[in-house]
Specification:
Blueprint: H1 3-6, E1 11-14, H2 18-29, E2 35-38, H3 46-50, E3 56-59, H4 64-68, E4 72-75, H5 84-90, E5 94-96, H6 98-105, E6 110-114, H7 119-132, E7 137-141, E8 157-161, H8 164-167, E9 177-180, H9 188-191, H10 194-202, E10 210-214, E11 230-234, E12 244-249, E13 252-257, E14 260-264, H11 273-288, H12 293-296, E15 311-313, E16 320-323, H13 330-341, E17 350-354, H14 367-373, E18 374-379, H15 384-388, H16 394-397, E19 398-400, H17 404-414, E20 420-423, H18 436-449
């Protein structure tokens, strides 16, 4: 496909969010007509409408006539294509997303990353490594600037973070290397079953030259139908030759490449074994792009990580407050709990603050970790009681409270010096906050407001 072929195509964009509007700008700037349709009322502000004088914006409903007469649908990732009002309209239609359109129009070398958890950390780490190595890299997909807003750039490597929503409409992706970092219950309100969610994630491997799989998670392994010839794996165990893993050497837990020790986990900037696995995945992907391991490893300690992802909150009370607000699903919270509890001495404890909108997840998966590793659980939000119900010691361990501020206050009363208080909600934030970042900032402010932070406790 090329831009000229789109000139005489009847194009409809579904969804007027960040991605939909980036698609509209791209088509407008290339002189390609389109209709943008959003089912929400007033989804586009008047000044935005004014910047598209020659194109049609339809808001407040799905326009069946416009959609039915289209040749090409460009769907925003936030649009559920299985929605009852859309299914019959989209039947036999070519439906793509912005990343698919990019891949149809350009053949940029790509490193592609998906997974339930850690994908933003891994692509940000890859972007950092590439820049530090002097490579012309570009970060896109489900992070930062929409990919079509960066269409005119010519990177050596495009680093793509891909959500399951984006992968639903991708078929032409041909990455140098692709990985599924891990798979756990997430977005089942849209995908319905874990198997369907897994199948969507598996699309990232279909045309990859190298598949980077997680040995610790069988759901990330290739399906029988996949024909990827080159496979690199990473895991928490001792790796075989040419693979990445971990081992104890002289009582230090080390990142390994085969029998070669690379770096102690204690030197990594991100706490927890789950973040060590993220580093191994990034090394495997970078190696697939031709970046020498020996050049990448010394750069790892200087990576700053992402806001609201296992981030320490400054205090002087001797308590380790950790902001993991970006943990919006069960897998992320399990990874944080298991990764951090390994850093505690035997006399210290882990206190968890969780809750929000669980998006249909099965919280029973949290039961073992809560019972075995967590001393107290303070729960907030829409699905707080559902999480409380999986704690075997409900009356003594789990407490439902009305706000994040109360949860922080109660945690401070329970915590002693050396303990960890972890905000890792296992839920989306939309029931109480604008987004996970707002939730994380509220946590930091609540910690700062506790009597004694900055003074006597």
């Amino acid at each position: 496909m090329n831009l000229e072929q789109l000139q005489n195509t009847n194009i409809v964009i579904l969804g007027a969010g960040l991605t939909g509007l980036s698609c509209a700008r791209f088509l407008r700037d290339n002189g390609i007509a389109f209709v943008l349709n959003d089912s929400r009322e007033n989804s586009v502000e008047l000044d935005t409408l004014a910047s598209f004088p020659n194109d049609k914006f339809i808001q407040g409903y799905w326009d069946s006539e416009v959609i039915s007469s289209s040749d090409l649908i460009i769907a925003s990732p936030g649009i559920d294509l299985s929605e009852a009002n859309l299914v019959s309209l989209l039947k036999n239609k070519q439906v793509i997303g912005d990343v698919e359109l990019y891949c149809l129009l350009k053949n940029t070398p790509i490193l592609a990353v998906t997974g339930s958890n850690g994908k933003s950390t891994v692509v940000s780490l890859l972007n950092y490594l590439g820049n530090a190595l002097g490579k012309n890299v570009l970060l896109g997909g489900n992070i930062g600037t929409p990919i079509l807003d960066q269409f005119d750039k010519q990177p050596e490597i495009l680093i793509l973070e891909l959500s399951s929503f984006q992968l639903e409409t991708i078929n032409s992706l041909t990455p140098i290397a692709a990985t599924i970092l891990n798979i756990s219950d997430d977005h089942l309100d849209r995908h319905k079953t874990l198997k369907n969610y897994q199948n969507i994630k598996q699309k990232i491997y279909h045309n990859a030259n190298v598949a980077v799989i997680n040995r610790d998670d069988e759901l990330t392994h290739l399906n029988d139908n996949d024909t990827v010839e080159n496979i690199i794996s990473f895991g928490s165990d001792v790796p075989s030759a040419g693979q990445f893993g971990m081992a104890f050497i002289e009582q230090k837990r080390m990142l390994m490449y085969g029998q070669q020790a690379l770096m102690s986990l204690s030197e990594l900037p991100l706490a927890g074994e789950h973040n060590a696995l993220n580093c191994l995945a990034a090394l495997a992907l970078g190696q697939s792009a031709g970046w020498p391991i020996a050049d990448m490893v010394p750069l790892l300690p200087n990576f700053k990580g992402l806001d609201h992802r296992c981030q320490r909150v400054n205090s002087n009370d001797g308590i380790h407050w950790v902001n993991d607000s970006k943990a919006t699903n069960i897998g992320a919270t399990l990874a944080a709990i298991e990764g951090l509890v390994a850093t505690l001495s035997t006399q210290n404890k882990l206190i968890l603050i969780a809750g929000g909108d669980g998006k249909g997840a099965d919280f029973e998966q949290l039961s073992s970790a809560l019972d075995n590793y967590v001393s107290h659980v303070f729960l907030i939000g829409k699905d707080a009681k559902l999480i409380a119900n999986v704690c075997a010691e409900l009356t003594t361990k789990a407490q439902v409270v009305d706000s994040l501020e109360i949860a922080v206050s109660n945690a401070a009363i329970c915590a002693d010096e050396g303990d960890i208080v972890l905000l890792s909600p296992a839920c989306a934030s939309i029931d109480m906050f604008k987004n996970y970042a707002a939730r994380g900032h509220a946590f930091e402010q609540a910690v700062a407001s506790i009597k004694g932070i900055g003074g006597d406790r």
